[in-house]
């Protein structure tokens, strides 16, 4: 989601750019039906002004301001029952009315690569063991449902130029006051001309991450009180009227502002804004994955690479610079296994890999247009640093993931 700033000159450009950006392909899309908070309509955060605390040129948000923004966003999400909407989407709530609406587990089975029988709610509800299986089938998926709210403001060349002019005017006046003459004013005029000739557009992106609260007790209430695969108006109405069970919780924040960001290609205004916003959000998403491990990107080994002699030369994965990958990144390769005693799914450590120098895919938005290094690739190549046999389909997880068993 995005915080829309109608008061800003480029606010509408940013909103349009955001609406046209694709969902990062390492995450499943799970839209809530609306994607925008209008900053001019937000009340109850600041004492006097309308809207969230806002990052502007020369003003960085304080920790207290960030906390108040996050609290208000969490409140807005929960008052709009976004958590309930998320759960309804997971269980594919559909029908023309309360009388005809039903749930199913098709999406859970599809995304989790489970057999339909593994998530058969009717069967699972009959036994304690069945509920344990059902809980496991949805645990990794439903509990790892997030809402990311991006508050994007910007710095333009004009703002930087005005600040540079003001600073140089003061310096020039002091210079002339000490030494006399017009040397300081000449210095100011030269600096102002340089500042005016500078062009650029840089965004300040504050990303607030919220996680759907889903555990065994919440799941049991949902399955017993609301889930129905056949029309049951009482259960459906109960679900739609429950405004307290399915909640979102604020879990992490990330900030991105690159003062040195330069785009090599030639862009029109709308494409420039879109490219800068996309890259800024990608940086925040990558940083949030490192900060909050349940949000880490988990992507499969795409293929094993061989040299001309038929020897293993590396491993390919469809991630790259957009996900924050550098030559120094380290990944675990893990295998998903089922515990025969409990039926629970776990991750088992297989190996450690690292990207190969010069073979990191530049998959950032519009990278091909700029023809930067790595943009011609279609995957990132990894080399094994330690561990056992790596096979296509095994998962790559950056850093150390706490749920992996060695």
Concise structural overview:
It contains twelve helices and 13 strands. With 406 residues, the chain is of the alpha+beta class.
List keywords for this structure.
406 residues, flat, 13 strands, 8-stranded mixed β-sheet, alpha+beta, 5-stranded mixed β-sheet
Q: What fraction, in percent, of the residue positions are helical?
A: 25-40%
Number of strands: 13
Number of helices: 12
Largest sheet: 8 strands, mixed
Structural class by secondary-structure content? alpha+beta
| Mean pLDDT metric | 84
Order of helices and strands: EHEHHHHHEHHEHHEHEEEEEHEEE
Task: Provide the gyration radius in Å.
Answer: 26 Å
Instruction: Provide the low-confidence segments as ranges.
Output: 163-173, 187-199
What does the overall shape look like? flat
Q: From the structure provided, what is the oligomeric state, counting identical versus distinct chains? A: single chain
Share in β-strands = 15-25%
Q: Distance between the terminal alpha carbons, to the nearest Å?
A: 37 Å
């Amino acid at each position: 989601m995005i915080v829309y700033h109608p008061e800003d000159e480029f606010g509408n450009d940013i909103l349009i750019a955001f609406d046209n950006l694709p969902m990062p392909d390492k995450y499943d899309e799970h839209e809530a039906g609306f994607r925008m908070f209008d900053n001019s309509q937000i009340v109850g955060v600041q004492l006097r002004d309308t809207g969230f605390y806002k990052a502007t040129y020369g003003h960085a948000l304080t920790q207290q301001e960030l906390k108040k923004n996050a609290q208000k966003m969490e409140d807005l999400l929960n008052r709009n029952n976004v958590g309930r909407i998320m759960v309804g989407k997971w269980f594919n709530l559909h029908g023309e009315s309360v009388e005809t609406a039903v749930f199913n587990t098709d999406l859970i089975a599809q995304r989790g690569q489970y057999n339909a029988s593994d998530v058969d709610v009717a069967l699972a509800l009959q036994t304690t063991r069945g509920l344990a299986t059902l809980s496991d089938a949805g645990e990794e998926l439903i509990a790892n449902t997030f809402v990311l709210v991006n508050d994007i403001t910007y710095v333009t060349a004009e703002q930087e130029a005005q600040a540079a002019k003001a600073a140089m005017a003061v310096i020039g006046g002091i210079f002339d006051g000490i030494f006399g003459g017009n040397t300081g004013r000449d210095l100011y005029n030269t600096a102002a001309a340089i500042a005016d000739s500078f062009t650029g557009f840089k965004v300040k992106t504050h990303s607030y991450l919220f996680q759907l609260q889903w555990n065994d007790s919440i799941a049991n209430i949902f399955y017993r009180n609301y889930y129905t695969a056949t029309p049951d108006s009482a259960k459906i109405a109960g679900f739609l009227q429950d405004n307290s069970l399915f909640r979102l919780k604020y879990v992490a924040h990330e900030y991105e502002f690159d003062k040195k960001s330069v785009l090599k290609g030639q862009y029109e205004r709308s494409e420039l804004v879109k490219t800068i916003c996309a890259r800024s959000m990608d940086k925040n998403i990558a940083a949030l994955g490192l900060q909050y491990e349940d949000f880490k990107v988990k992507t499969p080994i795409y293929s094993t690479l061989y040299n001309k002699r038929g020897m293993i030369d590396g491993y390919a994965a469809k991630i790259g610079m957009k996900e924050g990958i550098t030559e120094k990144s380290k990944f675990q390769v893990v295998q998903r296994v089922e515990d025969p005693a409990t039926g629970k799914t776990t991750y088992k450590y297989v190996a450690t890999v690292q990207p190969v120098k010069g073979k990191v895919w530049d998959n950032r938005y519009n990278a091909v247009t700029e023809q930067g290094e790595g943009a011609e690739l279609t995957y990132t190549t990894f080399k094994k640093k330690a561990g056992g046999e790596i096979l296509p389909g095994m998962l790559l997880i950056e850093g150390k993931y706490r749920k992996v068993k060695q």
